[in-house]
Design a protein that fits this description.
The complex is a heterodimer of chains A (about 220) and B (about 240). By secondary structure, chain A is an alpha/beta fold. Chain A contains five helices and 16 strands. Chain A has one domain: Glutaconate Coenzyme A-transferase. Classes of the chains: A alpha/beta (about 220), B alpha/beta (about 240).
Chain lengths: ~220, ~240
């Protein structure tokens, strides 16, 4: 069985080191927050202007002036700060964010990512994604391995308009954990019930197998 | 000369067709509600609107879209507005997508007298098309221009008659930058306090950036995604 969305999030939480400042995107990435241990003192950055994002509020704590980048009502933690959008993106572009985790429609062998537009169909805009992939020190993509039609989203070359060029370091899907290397996607870990060969065969982008690959815990 | 005006109608009186308008706000958070409603009732059109988002179908800038008052939008993300998507795909609305950080910096640059700046954001993407690219210390950057508006509209929590503004929580977002970038900046506040009652240390936008200010009314402060801890627990079950 491939991983569930929750399990992808759980696996990605292992990438977050104590004291990190992390920006989580919408979708699967936002679930990662549920699996970060409190004692790790991680500060979550929300690009609309909050460093120190807390859990969702209780009904009586809801404040329309306090939302995250997904426009959801949120709370803030001790040590949090608020700031305007230029400061927020100075943090991002200036290389002050340790890690960003975001969703994607496609990632290719060179680490380029597409997640903001399907020409003639979907035009939502890039929001902060182009700044995040250009500025965060480490970029991890969280997504399902295939799209609705079963097409592999790990591509040889992206077919959709790009969000960023050669910027993704690691991809975590429901099939496995892949590092972007000069030779292709290196399979680091795989979903317990899938075989590395199967994953390789059903992925469009080049997947490299290594003897050190192990099942995801 | 006093900057204080009675209400949004008076503040917006000379906004004209074809003008470039800059708006503060992120989603529906911290948007200048009163001014937008006033603009939606004026006989003006062909507006170029600069705003991170385009509101929802029936609130925020969605009101101006409904009236077909907007010719061009400059935004980073418009996913919450179905009407916007339709107008864009049918070619009725011109759109310039700008990465969020670039949009914020372009407004800041406009207010700070910096006509252009280099940024790594968007290199190698559609955003870079037609823009000068230059390498600094081994990395590529593209040249982005400032944005300045005929008018800028911002919403603050508290303000005084000089135009000094204090925002609340994440309702700050683009407002301080929009305030800097307007030839005429119109600020609406939840509470207009007497001169001297704001501590100079706590002011986010110094009044020099604000030309008109009024105390707004009937704030809706709509929430787009009402999410609570309880619903999260229910979801994960």
């Amino acid at each position: 069985m491939p991983l569930t969305r929750e399990q992808i999030a759980q696996r990605i939480a292992q990438e977050i080191k104590p004291g990190y400042v992390v920006n989580l995107g919408i979708g699967i990435p936002s679930l990662v927050a549920n699996y970060i241990p409190e004692e790790s003192q991680v500060m979550l950055h929300s690009e609309n202007g909050l460093l120190g994002l807390g859990p969702f509020p209780l009904e009586e704590e809801i404040d329309p002036d306090l939302i995250n980048a997904g426009k959801q009502t949120v709370t803030f933690v001790k040590g949090a700060s608020f700031f305007h959008s230029a400061d927020s993106f100075a943090m991002i572009r200036g290389g002050h964010i340790d890690l960003t985790i975001l969703g994607a429609m496609e990632v290719d062998e060179s680490g380029s990512i597409a997640n903001w537009m399907v020409p003639g169909k979907m035009v939502k805009g890039m929001g902060g994604a182009m700044d995040l992939v250009a500025g965060a020190r480490r970029v991890i993509v969280a997504m399902l391995h295939t799209d609705k039609s079963g097409q592999s989203k790990l591509r040889k070359k992206c077919t959709l308009p790009l969000t960023g060029v050669a910027c993704v370091h690691r991809v975590v899907t429901d099939w496995g954990v892949f590092d972007v290397t000069p030779e292709g996607f290196l399979l680091v870990e795989y979903a317990p019930d899938l075989s590395p060969e199967e994953i390789q065969k059903n992925t469009e982008g080049r997947v490299l197998l290594s003897s050190s690959a192990r099942p995801i815990k | 000369m006093s900057k204080v005006v009675k209400n949004a109608e008076e503040a917006c009186r000379d906004v004209f067709s074809g003008a470039t308008l800059i708006f503060g706000g992120f989603g529906l958070c911290g948007i200048p509600e009163n001014s937008i409603v006033a603009l939606s009732k004026m006989p003006i059109k062909d507006l170029t609107c600069v705003s991170n988002n385009a509101g929802v179908d029936d609130w925020g800038l969605g009101l101006l879209l409904q009236n077909r008052q907007i010719k061009k939008m400059i935004s980073s993300y418009v996913g919450e507005n179905a009407l916007f998507e339709r107008l864009y795909l049918t070619g009725e609305l011109e759109v310039e997508f700008v990465p969020q950080g670039t949009l914020a910096e372009r407004m800041r640059a406009g207010g700070a007298g910096i006509p252009a700046f280099y940024t790594p954001t968007g290199v190698g993407t559609l955003v870079a098309a037609g823009k000068e690219e230059r390498e600094f210390d081994g990395r590529k950057y593209i040249l982005e221009r400032w944005i300045r508006g005929d008018f800028a509209f911002v919403k603050a929590w508290k303000g005084d008659p000089f135009g000094n503004l204090v925002y609340r929580r994440t309702a700050r977002n683009f407002n301080p930058l929009a305030a800097m970038a307007g030839k005429i900046t119109i600020a609406e506040v939840e509470e207009l306090v007497p001169l001297g009652s704001l501590d100079p240390d706590e002011i986010h936008t110094p009044g020099i950036f604000v030309q008109r200010i009024f105390q707004g009314s009937h704030y809706q402060k709509r929430i787009e995604q009402r999410t609570t801890r309880l619903t999260l627990t229910q979801k994960s079950r």
